[in-house]
Amino acid sequence: MQYSGSVGGVYEYKVQGMHYNSCPNQAYTCENPRIYVPAPYIYRAPALSGNQTILHMTNLYRLINGAWVVVDTHSELRTLRAGTTGGYVRAEDFYQGQTGAFRIIVAISWLNPAQTRILGTRYVIYSQLGDYQCVGRSTAQCSAGNGYVFL
Fold first, then answer.
1. Whether the Cβ atoms of residue 24 and residue 40 lie closer than 8 Å to each other
2. Euclidean distance between CA atoms 63 and 102, whole angstroms
3. What are the pLDDT digits (tens) for 78-100?
4. Are 58 and 92 contacting, i.e. CB atoms less than 8 angstroms apart?
5. Which of 63, 74, 80, 146 has the fewest CB atoms found within 10 Å of its own CB?
6. 6-20, pLDDT tens digit by residue?
7. Average pLDDT of 64-72?
8. CB 110 within 8 A of CB 60
9. In this predicted structure, what is the pLDDT of residue 42?
């Protein structure tokens, strides 16, 4: 994890690679890649005792011609109320139409309630062995590598 400024902790889970049936009304099954990022728990930044706003952004990268390229982004704003330790942000689901190697990077920024000042930013870079796992019934078509999942 990389960070700058006053940030809270982040409790994250393994990214899950799986396949989903993209042709449910057909006599055959179409299996397409699905990358699921479970909801992380975000702790409050110590710099502000009142409410805090969290900007949670999840980027999905795909390996294209030897380079990691952003192919999808999901983001949300969430308020962490004063007096709480933190809260969960939304889990993210990425449904892809093509197979390939995929990687996730999450950016979390802590802001004041008016969203006019960034208290700090933390990047969760899923780039290590064990950051990804294959789940579901089509795990033979899935490979969790060192910093990526191949579907």
1. no
2. 6
3. 999 999 999 999 999 998 888 89
4. yes
5. 146
6. 888 899 899 999 877
7. 97
8. no
9. 96
